[in-house]
From TrEMBL:
InterPro entries: MTERF, MTERF_sf. Keywords: Transcription, Transcription regulation, Transcription termination, Transit peptide. GO terms for biological process: DNA-templated transcription termination. It comes from Actinidia chinensis var. chinensis (Chinese soft-hair kiwi). It comes from the Eukaryota. This is Transcription termination factor like. Belongs to the mTERF family. GO terms for molecular function: nucleic acid binding.
Length: 383
């Protein structure tokens, strides 16, 4: 009995020990599992900050938070305050943080402010700068001394004014982000080799910088293609044609324009002839082409091929030139005061003052309703 009683007493601590040992092992295993599958805590400080202060969605905040390391709000608060001070809205800040969350850890006074002040110093407006920084936060991530200022100096040497540099930046931020020695210098050299005037080069860089900042091999192919189409490098239409056929996007637009003109009876020669006269007619919208053609052909009775001889007519806004002016010409031609086959360039070319003098004021005694016809059409289109 005594032996049995001893065994029973001795077994209790053993069972207790085994129980605690199993609990301890399970705890260790649980810790190991949790560390191996560690995921951001949706209730952590960083996630809450990204949601409440930066306007990110919970899902985005959770995915972004591992890229950041801050436990107090002081540093990110100072960055957000700087951005707000310089015109960024809450929506723009949310976009910026989502695209470049590490910006929250930057030194606002030493890293961010000098770049913002530089862009402001060359004339970038508060609104444009806020839009640019939110759409492409990499502008704040580039070195001011090694990237931004050298890019500016070269662009200024070609464009000759801060205003044009800013215009180029507003068209594409890549003018300050790409390596100009790799993407711009060789392409400008290609144009200079075939005697494209500096004014045309500056025009292309100012208005369509994305067209000249291409892979040099592809850019050379485009330039040769434009030369083979018969464009004169000495005229500005040469660089407009380079823009029109540069990039996959413009190629798709070209194809849609080509089909649109074919539907209105243009031959391939008509299309190429129109392109040589005004390259932008091949990067217009199908809707604009159809709308203008409908007015000229169906309402004015013009031959569609006449438009091919004056493609600039397609670029005028229906609201501001085509309909009001054509209404006046229709009244005058019905009374035999002007030719029915008056050139479209004669109708659409002059500025408004000269058109009114030549076709309205000149005939106001014979056709007193002309001004009201013109104004009435303008008013109806503005409604």
């Amino acid at each position: 009995m005594l032996l049995i009683k001893k065994t029973a007493v001795d077994s209790t601590p053993s069972l207790v020990f085994l129980h605690h040992e199993r609990v301890f092992l399970r705890s260790i295993s649980s810790i190991a599992d949790s560390s191996s599958t560690k995921s951001p805590n949706p209730h952590s400080f960083r996630v809450s900050y990204l949601i409440n202060s930066c306007g990110l969605s919970p899902e985005t905040a959770i995915s972004v938070s591992p890229k950041l390391n801050f436990e107090t709000p002081e540093k990110p608060d100072s960055v957000l305050n700087l951005l707000r001070t310089h015109g960024l809205t809450q929506t723009q800040i949310s976009i910026l943080v989502r695209k470049r969350p590490q910006m929250l850890l930057a030194n606002p006074d030493k890293t961010l402010l000098p770049k913002i002040e530089f862009f402001q110093s060359i004339g970038v407006s508060r609104t444009d700068l806020a839009r640019s920084l939110s759409s492409n936060p990499a502008l704040l991530g580039r070195s001011l001394e090694n990237q931004i200022v050298p890019c500016y100096n070269y662009l200024k040497s070609v464009l000759q004014s801060d205003k044009k540099v800013v215009a180029a930046m507003n068209h594409t931020h890549s003018v300050f982000l790409k390596d100009l020695r790799k993407y711009l210098f060789p392409n400008i050299d290609v144009l200079r080799e075939i005697r494209v005037p500096e004014s045309s080069i500056a025009y292309l860089l100012n208005h369509f910088p994305e067209a000249i900042m291409k892979n040099p091999n592809r850019f050379s192919e485009v330039v040769n293609e434009v030369k083979e189409m018969g464009f004169d490098p000495l005229k500005v239409n040469f660089v407009l044609a380079v823009h029109a056929i540069s990039g996959d996007g413009n190629k798709l637009i070209w194809g849609r324009c080509y089909e649109a003109y074919r539907k209105w009876g243009w031959s391939e020669d008509d299309i190429l002839s129109a392109f040589r006269k005004h390259p932008q007619c091949m990067i217009s919208s199908e809707k604009k082409i159809s709308g203008a053609m409908d007015v000229f052909v169906n309402k004015m009775g013009r031959d569609s091929k006449e438009i091919a001889r004056c493609p600039i007519a397609l670029l005028f806004s229906l609201e501001k030139r085509i309909l009001p002016r054509c209404s006046v010409i229709q009244v005058l031609s019905s009374k035999g005061l002007v030719k029915k086959d008056l050139r479209l360039s004669t109708i659409l070319g002059p500025v408004e003052k000269h058109f009114l003098e030549r076709f309205v004021i000149k005939y106001e005694e014979k056709v007193p309703q002309l001004l009201s016809v013109y104004q009435g059409k303008m008013d109806s289109l503005e409604l």
